[in-house]
């Protein structure tokens, strides 16, 4: 499927527009604070839009639609029940405390609350994860664009890397967030165009339901959000509630640097909180964009065996010339918004938590700004170079995702106890994090003998969270408590009096 | 135990009610937060800046979706 002239012009206009818009923000970057935290001047609406488009990648359109094709709307739990409560907890509890503490990164908060070992472990794992994930993101998206549009794979990777690289290196977080705003609009318009055409084709929503139910009894649960544990899917309601809602969602929205960093760039505490709630409202529409196409494809093409072909098939069959360019730009927007955020966050983690903390401690701010830009460029190059390796190591995607799922539960446990329980100590946090990681690693290694479902990542995250929570609490009770002065501004409700507010203002001014 | 077998007896209607109760708890928790804390950082206390209302709206929308498709 090639691009017509009008489609090609749409895509070129989009790419040039992103390049110019991103590069425009270079003139606002004079310090490392401008670069990493957008000078703490971002409004809630821009952050909220950026949060949502950062979370959704080009591959999600295909992957989630494929899962919806196979398992139905239960997949939407990841964007609804697995998102909204977590975003509200982030908005009202964690984000205001991070913002007031004046930190750049989550590991930085963890050092202030626990110790340097916890910070280093968290920062190291996140930098490694983002760098590896970038290559996979580039490769998977390039494959998708090749399938859909016939673009050469190397060309897709290089053009995306060039445009994202120019505006992310020059404009930092401001450029990332403001381009994300435009990218969200383009992604929504492109996505809804596909859905409107698809629903028209199947006779509206009721036609869609009738067609799918008419396919046979095996599809009777395709419009149910909750599936019983014995339904033979990776998404039983028990996993959705305990693993996703209680653990993974919270870990993602309060412990993921890529997500949290834009809220730390908010112009004040109210905007920081409001950004998460506004983002949660926009997030309600994401399943419409990524799940509905899978259902439409099932109604129209029930014969295709591979669910991941659902979305490409829909585009091939439904889109008229003119709209294809818009949808293609929507794909590029989803890809670029994820890549720019990953680059900016990885550069922040490396510069603040590793370079400034261990390698060069007392350099000038300009020096750290240069290091931040250089790191962004280096990580981008690592992503581009490692992208083709994904093809040679087919299990790489699984390993990288496993790395993330192994650390999510334990990270949430120490964040929750660190924020809500002033008795949690450095020794407790370190022991809890290490024991939790060991637990999830062992559960993952022996999963086939321990769990009744084939891909039990939701269950593993819950149990590793629980073990980490208990070990952190247990070890903390047997070790010396931290003095209250050290915990001020880092633990929930330890900020009420004037003296504490003064200490916090001093800390922010010195940050 | 690892597979939550002890919850296998719950029907999907009971699960739906459980999730509705969770939404109610979330709304109750949001409204229990002090208004001073909700507005901290805001230049004024105009009604549209009340983040409790924003959060309630989002949770009610989600509750409607789960009530319909649960």
Descriptive report:
The complex is a heterodimer of chains A (511) and B (70). Chain A has helices at residues 5-24, 32-37, 44-55, 58-71, 84-101, 106-113, 116-149, 153-202, 204-213, 237-255, 257-264, 269-283, 286-290, 292-300, 310-318, 323-359, 365-386, 389-392, 396-420, 426-445, 447-450, 457-477, 484-487, 498-510. Chain A has 511 residues and is mostly helical. Chain A starts with a helix and ends with a helix. With 70 residues, chain B is mostly helical. Chain B has one domain (10-69). The longest helix of chain B is centred in the N-terminal third of the chain and has 21 residues, at 12-32. The radius of gyration of chain B is 17 Å and the shape is elongated. Classes of the chains: A mainly alpha (511), B mainly alpha (70).
Question: Any chance you could write out the topology, listing elements then pairs?
Answer:
The complex is a heterodimer of chains A (511) and B (70).
Chain A: H1 5-24, H2 32-37, H3 44-55, H4 58-71, H5 84-101, H6 106-113, H7 116-149, H8 153-202, H9 204-213, H10 237-255, H11 257-264, H12 269-283, H13 286-290, H14 292-300, H15 310-318, H16 323-359, H17 365-386, H18 389-392, H19 396-420, H20 426-445, H21 447-450, H22 457-477, H23 484-487, H24 498-510
Chain B: H1 12-32, H2 35-39, H3 51-69
Helix pairs in contact in B: 1-3
């Amino acid at each position: 499927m090639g691009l017509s002239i009008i489609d090609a012009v749409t895509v070129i206009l989009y790419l040039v527009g992103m390049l110019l818009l991103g590069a425009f923000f270079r003139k606002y970057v004079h310090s490392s604070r401008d670069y990493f935290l957008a000078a703490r001047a971002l409004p809630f609406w821009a952050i909220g839009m950026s949060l949502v488009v950062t979370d959704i990648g080009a591959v999600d359109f295909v992957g989630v639609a494929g899962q919806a094709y196979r398992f139905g709307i239960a997949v939407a739990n990841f964007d609804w029940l697995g998102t909204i409560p977590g975003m509200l907890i982030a908005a009202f509890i964690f984000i205001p405390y991070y913002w007031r503490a004046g930190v750049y990164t989550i590991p930085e908060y963890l050092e202030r609350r626990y110790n340097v070992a916890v910070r280093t472990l968290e920062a190291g794992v996140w930098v490694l994860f983002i760098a590896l994930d970038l290559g996979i993101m580039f490769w998977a998206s390039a494959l998708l664009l090749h399938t859909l549009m016939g673009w050469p794979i190397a060309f897709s990777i290089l053009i995306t890397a060039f445009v994202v690289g120019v505006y992310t290196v020059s404009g930092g977080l401001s450029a990332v967030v403001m381009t994300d705003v435009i990218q969200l609009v383009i992604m929504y318009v492109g996505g809804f165009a596909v859905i409107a055409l698809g629903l028209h084709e199947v006779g509206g929503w009721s036609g869609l339901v009738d067609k799918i139910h008419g396919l046979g009894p095996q599809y009777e649960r395709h419009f149910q959000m909750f599936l019983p544990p014995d339904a033979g899917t990776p998404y039983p309601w028990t996993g959705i509630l305990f693993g996703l809602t209680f653990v993974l969602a919270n870990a993602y929205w309060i412990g993921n640097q890529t997500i949290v960093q834009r809220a730390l760039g908010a112009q004040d505490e109210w905007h920081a909180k409001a950004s998460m709630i506004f983002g949660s409202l926009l997030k309600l529409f994401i399943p419409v964009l990524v799940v509905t196409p899978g259902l439409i494809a099932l109604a129209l093409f029930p014969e295709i065996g591979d669910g991941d072909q659902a979305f490409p098939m829909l585009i091939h069959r439904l889109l008229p010339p003119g709209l294809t360019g818009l949808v293609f730009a929507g794909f590029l927007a989803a890809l670029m918004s994820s890549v720019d955020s990953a680059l900016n966050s990885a550069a922040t983690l490396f510069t603040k938590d590793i370079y400034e903390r261990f390698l060069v401690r007392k350099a000038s701010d300009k020096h750290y700004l240069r290091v931040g830009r250089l790191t962004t460029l280096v990580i981008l190059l690592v992503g581009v170079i490692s992208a083709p390796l994904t093809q040679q190591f087919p299990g790489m995607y699984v390993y990288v995702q496993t790395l993330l799922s192994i650390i999510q539960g334990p990270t949430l446990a120490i964040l929750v106890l660190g924020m809500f329980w002033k008795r949690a100590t450095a020794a407790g946090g370190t022991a809890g994090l290490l024991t939790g990681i060991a637990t999830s690693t062992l559960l993952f290694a022996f999963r086939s003998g321990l769990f009744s479902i084939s891909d039990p990542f939701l269950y593993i995250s819950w149990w590793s969270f629980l073990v980490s929570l208990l070990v952190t609490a247990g070890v903390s009770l047997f070790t010396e408590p931290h003095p209250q002065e050290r915990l001020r501004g880092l633990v929930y409700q330890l900020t009420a009096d004037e003296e504490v507010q003064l200490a916090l203002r001093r800390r922010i001014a010195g940050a | 135990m690892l597979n939550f077998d002890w919850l296998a007896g719950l029907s999907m209607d009971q699960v739906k009610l459980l999730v509705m109760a969770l939404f109610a708890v979330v709304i109750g928790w949001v409204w229990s937060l002090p208004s001073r804390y909700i507005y901290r950082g805001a230049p004024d206390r105009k009604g549209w800046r009340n983040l409790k209302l924003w959060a309630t709206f989002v949770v009610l929308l989600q509750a409607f979706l789960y009530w319909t498709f649960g």
